Structure formats: C-alpha cells, structure tokens
Amino acid sequence: MTSQKYQLSSVTNAMKILNIFKVSERKELSFTEITTITRIPKSTAHRLITSLKSEGFLSQNPRTGKYRLGLTLLTLGGIVSVHKQTYQEAFPFLEQLVREINETCHICLLEERDVVFFQRVHRKDPDHLITEEGRKGPVHCTSEGLILLAYQDKAHQERVLSGPLKRYTECTTTDPPQLRSRLTRIAKEGYAWCEGEYFKDYTSIAVPIRDYSSLVVSSLSLVTQTTRLQGKDTSFYMERLKETADDISEALGYFGDI
C-alpha cells in the first residue's frame, strides 16, 4: 500500500470509530465493542484509538476503561452531543446560581493539559472575558483547572506539571513543588481559589462536580472582578457554589460516596 493510500485508510478508519458514537445509544464503548462494530483489526484500532485519545478526540473513563467522545470536537466548533446531553439538566442550576449571585459562572471540563469552558452564563452587565464556550484555558493558574487536576491521579498531575507552565501575570505560580502542595490542599479543602493568576484583577472560585461513578468529572466556577469581592462575605459565594455543584452532581447520578 502506498503512503498516500495508507494515510487515507487511517483517516477513514478513524472517522468510522468517531461515527459509531453518533449512532450508539450508549455514551461509552469498550475497545472490544468498538472493534466489533467497526470491524477494524484490533492492532489498527488500538493505534487509532491511542492517537485519537492523545489529540482529545476520544477520552477514556479511568474507572471503566471505556471510551467516549472527547472535547477537541467541541473546541473545533462542533457539538459533542454526548456531553451536551449529559449536562442538559445542569444548565437550569447554572442559570439559577447566576441569578442569585450576579456573577458569571461556568461548568468546565478537563482535557489532558487544558481546561475547557464548556457552559457559561453571564452576569448582568458582563465582563469582557475570554471564557467563551469551547475555549481552552491553562490548568495551572485557573481555579477551574486546579480543582479538576487536584482529583486526578498522580501520573496525570505530573504530565501537566512537567510541561510548560506559562506565567500570565505576576501572580501566576509556575513552580511545580508549590503547585503539588497546592493541589493536595485543594483536594482536602474541596475548592480552588485563584486571584489575579490568569486574568489580572480577576478572581475565580471553583468547586468539583461528580457523576454516578463518584469521580470528579467537571468543575463549577465563578469569575469576578476582585474589587467586587472586597468587603463581601465570600462564604456566601462558596456555599452557593457548593450547593449548586451538589445539585448538578445529583442530576448526573451522584448521591454521595457509598
């Protein structure tokens, strides 16, 4: 087979793998199910799935080992229906939270080394922030990313901390040992707080969202001008974030650790 034909065959098979998630009634499929449905040889399927996963087109559930569509499709401007359907019931909770606290709030997802702003509801008179739905942001200096990374395994944490850690402001922490200690503290306390680390003069607070598997699968956050928090009882914002995250987690099938 010529190099050109080989590349075309690989692209065709990769599309076959992605397309089966569009027609499947299940959100996640095992490796065996993928090869059975597509009839792609296991060695070829393994190579393609590995590539699709590394590029974010597929993601793997660390608990079951099964695969689902990844967020790269969303960031390219498409709609990953499996995620949209999963979080459909979460959106009213997000809207209610914003009505109560009048701050822009997000639901975010982790995509390997990036955090993806998946859903957003603006406050009245919204700030001009680069947190559009589908946009990627750094993990190491956002509350949305740090809270998600804090609940990942050590191998995942090290992959992020060993990579480039860009300094966005004078407040950005780029020292891996400091970030490791911070992740441990965040996992213990159950929230992440970033002040002026990604956007100068802005503060973000994030808490975890869990699904039926008890795993942390997304984060709920608010982003506000730091001056708006001055003189206010920040515990109110924290409590409302946690209460809303609990409501969303319950909608995703989480009812507490068994």
Q: Describe it for me?
A:
This protein is α+β, with helices and mostly antiparallel strands. It has two domains: 3-70, Arc Repressor Mutant, subunit A, CATH 1.10.10.10; 83-251, Beta-Lactamase (2-Layer Sandwich), CATH 3.30.450.40. It contains eleven helices and eight strands. It has helices spanning 3-23, 31-38, 42-54, 72-75, 81-86, 91-101, 143-150, 154-161, 176-189, 226-229, 234-251; strands spanning 58-60, 67-69, 104-111, 114-121, 136-138, 192-195, 202-210, 216-225. Strands 5-4-3-8-7-6 form a six-stranded antiparallel beta sheet, with helices on both faces. The relative contact order is 0.11.
First and last CA, distance: 54 Å
Structural class: alpha+beta
- Major β-sheet annotation: 6 strands, antiparallel
Helical residues, percent: 40-55%
Shape: globular
Runs in which pLDDT lies below 50 for 5 or more consecutive residues are 1-7, 77-82
Strand order of the largest sheet: 5-4-3-8-7-6
How many individual helices? 11
Radius of gyration: 19 Å
Domains (count): 2
Instruction: Work out the number of β strands.
Output: 8
- H/E topology pattern: HHHEEHHHEEEHHHEEEHH
Predict the CATH topology of the largest domain: Beta-Lactamase
CATH superfamily of the largest domain: GAF domain
Strand content: 15-25%
CATH architecture of the largest domain: 2-Layer Sandwich
The average pLDDT value, as a whole number, equals 85
Q: What is the top-level CATH class of the largest domain?
A: Alpha Beta
